[in-house]
Design brief:
Helix content: 10-25%
Number of helices: 2
Oligomer: single chain
Radius of gyration: 15 Å
Number of strands: 8
Largest sheet: 8 strands, mixed
Length: 138
Amino acid sequence: MLPVQAITTLMAAAGLGVQGVSIFLGAAENLPSTGGAILTVVESGGPPPQPLHNDVTDGLRFPSYQVTARHSSYLTAGLKAAQARHAMNAKNIAVGDQFFLWIQPSGEPITLPLDGNQRARVAFNLSTSVRAVVPSDP
């Protein structure tokens, strides 16, 4: 499992939606054009990893993500972004083979231009600290 998959798993567990139905990974190419609010999560880099103790490998990684809520109504998109931002604040949590030391929003929500289906978009950034593991096969 990749850390980004663990993030969407946590979102689903928090009741924010269903993976592949209203929570999506990566580029927003094949999103439903109608229906309820949609969340998309894309990786957005992060600072370099940090080794632990005398280990030369990546002991801790700090991936960051952009979480975007979409809906035809700006208020509904904003509410979904606020709910996701509130839910994605955790410490010392294991998800699959990933262990997050912390997950926290790193800023306030921002309004983005309408998407290709003319839906309002409200986004926020998420910072994490995760123990480095070699991801298993999907």
